[in-house]
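Same chain as my last thread, 375 residues:
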Amino acid sequence: MAYVVADPCIGTKDRACVEVCPVACFYENDDQLFIHPQECIDCDACVPVCPVTAIFAEAQVPEEWKFYTQKAIDYFAENAGVPAAKSKAEVGSGGVAEGSTHWTWKGQPAAAAAVHATSSAVAEAPPTPVQPKPTPAPATVHATTETVVEATAAAAPPKPAPAAPAAKTVEPPHKPMDPAEYQRLQALLYQLLEMMGGSRPFDASVFTEAGATGMRLQKEVAVEFGKESYTATELEKKGMSLRQKHDLGRSLLQAVDRAQFIVRYRVHRRTFMQTAFGGAVTGLISVLCGTLSFRTVRIDALFATPDPALTELLRSFLNQESLIPFLGFQMIAGILGLFTLVAISQCWRAGKKLHALKRAMQVKQIDPRLIARLA
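reply #2:
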């Protein structure tokens, strides 16, 4: 599984995630949405737009909601061929799209019982019994008490005055993002996704702004949290606004990283195509010039004399009428042949760079269908 939709989606189904998904990998049931593990390209665009923070990476699903991963696996195993989820405009927030499945998960009672048993075991754990100490005889207690009091009075120094209790530090509540700024950054993320999907013209300035904004959000989260290394669970304990700001900044940076890769892929692919076309044209002209150079030679003299001498043979080939055109065409063919060899060498280098970029695409887990559509 790439991403998992967990418990907060139950009964909500806001569908903001469906609208931003570039590959339409969301499917639905009566109560919640599901993400298809094979169709998801890990663009992380759906995480920051979820109003109830119900979408998690598989490794970051909270412990009490781990069974939603198995629920999603069972859903796609038992519901093949169902239509994709609809957007808000088509259904409305929380509605059910036409043709959606009314599937009931068979493992729901077992999962709920396991969660309830775990919480009950923790809550009802009996306290550890304290063994009572044996009570000594009264005379022994009295003698021992008098001895201890006399030794304490003789050896113990006077007690210092008790220090004032330290003031309890109260952490200030984390202020959520300005709603206007949050909507503006969401619109910026949508522009990036539309550019990567091919529905909006490519604009390098938008990606530059998105990269700077993503880095700024990451720094703000680190300052408010108090350290630079943290997990999503720790952010949720501090405040949900920090989690949303972190997810939005990470989504912007991931989109910018994929866009930069696409720009490099386009440049190298354009160079390869232009070089290959130029090499093919110069090679064709070189072959044509070589053919014309031999067409200028008079070959009828070979058949006029049965046994021509070497001097007569050279004169028949290189006379005053054919020498200059022959040399001119041969020179042009030779020069264009050198250009063709250079073009072949450059095509080889550009092809190696494209191959390296495709391997980097596999490492970054970028869907080849997306690259093919944008290239």
